[in-house]
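User: Please fill in residues for this 296-position structure.
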């Protein structure tokens, strides 16, 4: 008889070991591989576009690009400083219009309404989010440009605000609905009113998700050209003000320079595309950073 105890073996332990030859496990591996392939097919075009924009527009990245006016036909030097300022101005005005209205509308939907009214507004918001951007431009042209008798930056900002509103309302509404009802009940239980609960408890907790929605809306507005075609007149000069009929913007500059046959202007169009992508990236990074700095 051996002095060493025989190791204990559980007869059912072998059944815990997955047999990769079973059809269920083979299907699991196949579907995992298919999902990974789909992810790769989704990411590859994205990075391909970014790489191509960087390749085509990187040659024009210099100090002059951010300090000088766009070149005219036949010129070889210049920049896109006026277009950057114009984009910041029109998108900033659009955000000042869309963000307060969008957040307040979402608060009403999530906290102070219900039933058929809320469902109808949510359905209308979903429909508006799929409306082509050119429709917003036609709306601003008919309601503002024809009424005032002239093009204006305000008209373009209102057109962009119309495009931003559905995104802001949807993301804010969903962010508020994620907040547990127990938090609201606890706030009301200690004597807070509904408005105090929303403004001091629910809304601060949802700010990171709201900022994400605002960033998406701003990114869409910054890249839109069709609404500006109906509301402003492009110029290579510096932006004059919110009521001026002319506006230099990055998206409009890309449209004007890329459709011609001048190779120099096409290079500036690629550089403007790259700067537009970088502005959206910087906005997203700053939004993420700001949301993490708060005590949410």
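Assistant: Residues filled in for all 296 positions:
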């Amino acid at each position: 008889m051996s002095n060493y105890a025989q190791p204990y073996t559980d007869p059912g332990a072998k059944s815990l070991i997955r047999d990769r030859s079973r059809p269920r496990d083979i299907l699991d591996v196949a579907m995992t591989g298919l999902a990974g392939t789909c992810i790769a097919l989704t990411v590859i075009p994205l990075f391909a576009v970014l790489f191509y924009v960087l390749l085509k527009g990187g040659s024009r990245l210099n100090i002059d690009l951010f300090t000088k006016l766009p070149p005219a036909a036949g010129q070889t030097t210049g920049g896109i400083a006026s277009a950057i300022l114009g984009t910041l101005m029109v998108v900033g005005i659009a955000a000042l219009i869309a963000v307060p209205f969008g957040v307040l509308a979402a608060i009403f939907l999530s906290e102070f309404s219900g039933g058929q009214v809320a469902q109808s507004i949510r359905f209308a918001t979903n429909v508006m989010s799929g409306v082509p951007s050119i429709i917003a431009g036609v709306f601003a042209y008919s309601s503002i440009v024809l009424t005032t008798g002239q093009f204006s930056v305000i008209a373009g900002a209102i057109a962009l605000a119309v495009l931003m509103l559905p995104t802001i309302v949807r993301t804010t509404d969903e962010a508020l609905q994620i907040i547990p009802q127990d938090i609201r009940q606890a706030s009301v239980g200690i004597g807070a009113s509904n408005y105090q609960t929303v403004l001091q408890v629910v809304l601060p907790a949802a700010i990171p998700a709201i900022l994400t929605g605002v960033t998406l809306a701003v990114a869409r507005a910054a890249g839109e050209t069709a609404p500006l075609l109906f509301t402003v007149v492009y110029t290579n000069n510096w932006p004059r003000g919110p009521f001026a009929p002319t506006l230099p913007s990055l998206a409009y500059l890309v449209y004007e320079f890329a459709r011609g046959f001048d190779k120099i202007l096409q290079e500036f169009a690629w550089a403007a595309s790259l700067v537009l992508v970088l502005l959206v990236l910087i906005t997203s990074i700053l939004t993420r950073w700001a949301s993490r700095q708060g005590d949410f």
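For context: The longest helix spans residues 23-57.
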